[in-house]
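hey all, quick one before standup. I had two proteins in the batch that finished overnight and I want to keep them in one place so we stop losing track of which output belongs to which input. First protein below, input sequence then structure tokens straight from the run.
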Amino acid sequence: MGRQRILCVVTVVAALVAATPAMAQRLSLAERVTKLENAANAQNLDAGRSNLEAQNQIVELQTEVRSLRGLVETLQNEIEQLKQSNRQQYIDLDARLARLEGGAPAAAPASPSSTAAAPATAANAPATGPSSAGAAPAATVDPAAEDAAYQAALDALVERYEAADSARLFQAFIRDYPQSALLPNAYYWLGESYYVTQNYELALEAFRTLLGQYPGSRKEADALLKTGYCQIALGQRAEGETTLRDLTARHPGTDAAGKAESRLRTLALENR
């Protein structure tokens, strides 16, 4: 019996000794798995933080973009308001200067030069014809209505870019106010209304009427420039070059003369 007990104890001890490495190995694997899980959790946590930071940055960038867009829109609105203000100031100045320089009523049609330029225009701008003979005395003209008619015609061209409507309104102004100090300007802008739509023949007639009936007008240099442009566009190149040279000689140093010189240089290069 004593031997059997000893043998049992020895067997148990041997079994325990044999099982110890396996248990130790199992514990080691468990620890490794735990470490890997902890590492994975740490990586996931870092990745989550990185994603959160990236999302925050995206939100901030989107906010900045919206802010910049709003700023751009504000600046665009301010620029457009400035443009409109500048146009309005120019229009007002244009009318005031025309009145200051036109102290005497437009009686120039009696001059010899007017008869050379007027025939072609009379067919398209009847304002200087029959209506002038039966026109009401200047004293009966309503200055406010005159200004409003001129302003409406100029706004159609400068503000709304409606050249056809502008031409019609300027023709009506010339017909209805034949003694207006604004007639030289009206003829010039009538020509511009035709010019921007490439109706060069009618534009040329309007500019020639201005040059013939109102010599020395503040619009003379610009009218000469556009006269030369129209002639060149109509295939009258030699006449156009002569007109541009005449402009540079009569109005040196003006913006119109500078443009004429530039056009003449371009034409000279084309001849090479």
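OK second protein, same deal, sequence then tokens:
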Amino acid sequence: MSLHVIVGAGPVGTATARHLAERGEQVRLVTRRGTGPVDPAIERIAADAADTDRLTALTHGAVALYNCANPAYHRWATDWPPLAGALLTTAERTGAVLATVGCLYGYGPVDAPMTEDTPLAATGTKGQVRNRMWTEALAAHRAGRARITEVRGSDYLGAEGNSLLPLVLPKVLAGQRVFLPVNWDAPHSWTYVGDVVRTLVAAATDERAWGRAWHVPSNPAVSARELAGRVAQLADAPTPRLVRMPYPLLWLGGLNDPFARELRETAHQFARPFVLDSTRATETLGITPTPLDEALADTVRVLAATIRTPTPAGGAH
């Protein structure tokens, strides 16, 4: 039994804690309020992970430190730097492998399927924040100060998330019209949370993965229209009514809505083909994606539970 420390109890952090506990590992889950799944095998700790000394003490003796945190979408530029700095310093002090849950924002607009070698060319704030985090961690790894890795997935299935998808599927299940700035017919990659967890733990515990970023194995891209239609079939809901919102309306919405304002930066992901190539992780780490219909069935279950029990504003991350 080895100690694994997880920062953040959002969908990925919670699922990672449960996955490791089921494997018989010692799990310590760190959040500001000590939240997380109630499980005798999971130790929940209330602490500010940006406090480097406190996080170092909590990580002492751990084999891995998982960055599953998720600051508020509109606060990435202010909240990520101190938190990322504390996580990296803690990894340097303790020797724990720092395994970070990343995203695809760092690539910026693309014209071809994204691989781990695609240039990190983002010009937006969120993409640049994530790129600085990765660049600093990679420099520490190459200097021999830390062992690090990162896994990157596309929009999540099986969980709520910071994307347009949570705005789409509840309306599909309710038989309501969906009016969003989405090219409903453009191919798009979708990543299942369970596959994020398996890839994250594999990358943290396999030294072949250290010092590199990995794309989470994901199914072949399908359009948002096809995805919504398959969800409707699984839930016995009406055929989705999907209407594309003109981009200027999204821009105007961002004048008063922080979330809509942040979506301006990533609107390209839903305006054109957005395809993830995850061949490397499958070939090296032996992970294959969960079948799409299985991932969608889990997504429907999660959404149904969320609709019945609304999440309080500012939920745990």
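Flagging for whoever picks this up: The longest helix spans residues 76-94. The CA atoms of residues 29 and 44 lie 5 Å apart.
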